[in-house]
């Protein structure tokens, strides 16, 4: 029994999909897509040289395009701040006197321990302060 070339290409695509799942390396996925394209060329009656050319050109093109897009996204900072980064720059209300030794504020609906950024400055109950950073579980305010 002779197996058609397109079946071999599909077997190759599945074989390339296994390391994609195991290693999470997207390059294997690009090669698998190239193998599927080569299987289509083989099923349509294309020669071995055309099948290999389609596999190589499509795989390399996908790797080049996807890598460029991935690098661009990796270098961009997220526009949406989350977690403690989202609290920086927010205003809070002093609940207990805040100085360099500590105090309490209400920040984003929660009660936080706080200390003043300037060791000589203190803030009284009811005063609004700005959060400049979060140091562990303590808000540093001015």
Automatic annotation (TrEMBL):
Q: Which GO terms describe its cellular component?
A: plasma membrane
Where does the UniProt annotation locate this protein? Membrane
Topologically, how does it sit relative to the membrane?
Multi-pass membrane protein
Primary location recorded for the protein, binned into one broad class: membrane
Q: Where does the sequence pass through the membrane? A: 6-22, 52-70
List residues of the NfeD-like C-terminal domain: 84-141
Q: Which UniProt keywords apply?
A: Membrane, Transmembrane, Transmembrane helix
Protein name in the entry? Membrane protein
UniProt source species:
Streptomyces sulfonofaciens
């Amino acid at each position: 029994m002779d197996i058609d070339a397109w079946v071999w290409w599909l077997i190759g695509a599945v074989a390339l999909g296994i390391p994609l799942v195991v290693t999470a390396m997207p390059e294997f996925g690009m090669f698998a897509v190239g193998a599927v394209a080569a299987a289509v060329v083989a099923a349509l009656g294309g020669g071995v040289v055309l099948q290999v050319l389609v596999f190589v050109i499509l795989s390399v093109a996908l790797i080049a395009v996807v890598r460029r897009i991935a690098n661009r996204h990796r270098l961009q900072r997220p526009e949406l701040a989350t977690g403690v980064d989202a609290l920086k720059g927010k205003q809070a209300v002093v609940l207990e006197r805040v100085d360099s030794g500590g105090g309490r504020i209400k920040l984003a609906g929660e009660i936080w321990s706080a200390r003043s950024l300037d060791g000589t400055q203190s803030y009284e109950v009811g005063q609004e302060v700005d959060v400049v950073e979060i140091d562990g579980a303590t808000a540093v305010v001015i």
